[in-house]
Amino acid sequence: xxxxxxxxxxxxxxxxxxxxxxxxxxxxxxxxxxxxxxxxxxxxxxxxxxxxxxxxxxxxxxxxxxxxxxxxxxxxxxxxxxxxxxxxxxxxxxxxxxxxxxxxxxxxxxxxxxxxxxxxxxxxxxxxxxxxxxxxxxxxxxxxxxxxxxxxxxxxxxxxxxxxxxxxxxxxxxxxxxxxxxxxxxxxxxxxxxxxxxxxxxxxxxxxxxxxxxxxxxxxxxxxxxxxxxxxxxxxxxxxxxxxxxxxxxxxxxxxxxxxxxxxxxxxxxxxxxxxxxxxxxxxxxxxxxxxxxxxxxxxxxxxxxxxxxxxxxxxxxxxxxxxxxxxxxxxxxxxxxxxxxxxxxxxxx
Length: 350
Description:
Keywords: Membrane, Transmembrane, Transmembrane helix
Largest sheet: none
Main location: membrane
InterPro entries: BilAc:Na_symport/Acr3, Bilac:Na_transpt, Na+/solute_symporter_sf
Order of helices and strands: HHHHHHHHHHHHHHHHH
Distance between the termini: 7 Å
CATH architecture: Up-down Bundle
Protein name: Bile acid:sodium symporter
GO cellular component, one term: membrane
Number of helices: 17
Strand content: under 5%
């Protein structure tokens, strides 16, 4: 998801005639609005689906397609420069991605068993943990005065390697309690994630001017897509959610907060700069819950997608709160100088 759009400009002087807003400015304003209120919009959608489940019960087959559109948009925001950090700071990137794919799957597994969740809901928790980083994390890291280039690279790399690691992790952690077709899941992630992302990146390279004109509408498409996914998931498992709602919300909150805390702890233990610790924390704690929901609806029961639906709301709330707190705590000057020397000034976010 893109960061909030900057203000349109100065307020005109009294008595001055103001020209009507252009369609581009209107779309930009709508995108900024929905991006700012994303969590509340998704929460409201979940409440509507819970109150009127028959209205959205047939939407589940559209979930993978919705996610493909979102991932196409993510690919269109990428640039080759996003991967330059691999050569400049491979250790930081390797550490961050390794933390992403170890802490969250194991934490999801542990929390689910600690709270005694059913096998289906446990599979959903593990799917959330085994998913790559969420695109909104880049914005949160930027607002938190974190290491934005590291955040962008972690999201990009974790997404590109998801077709291999996500099925393997799910097989290892879920395979004993529920049947898992790892090869089919690998193919699904290729189709839902990798192909759209690579296609979006190619479009950015081949048609840069066209893509630049589309960037302002991408946050709007992402919010609409995730909202539709939440409507489908909650409507398809309304009875299960009413039955285990509070316990499942607690599980999701523990999963997310634990990921944020352990991600920061890993950065601190390895003596990473403060800005990099913030980036790793947010990248580890915020997941691509849309992918988890899509895989859950295809390979398990509809109820397995409930942790992802709740996570999609909560991690944006917790991420925003953490980013706000860190934005008021300056990064040490020595850390800023060290990152600037490595070409990671954190000036770019998306």
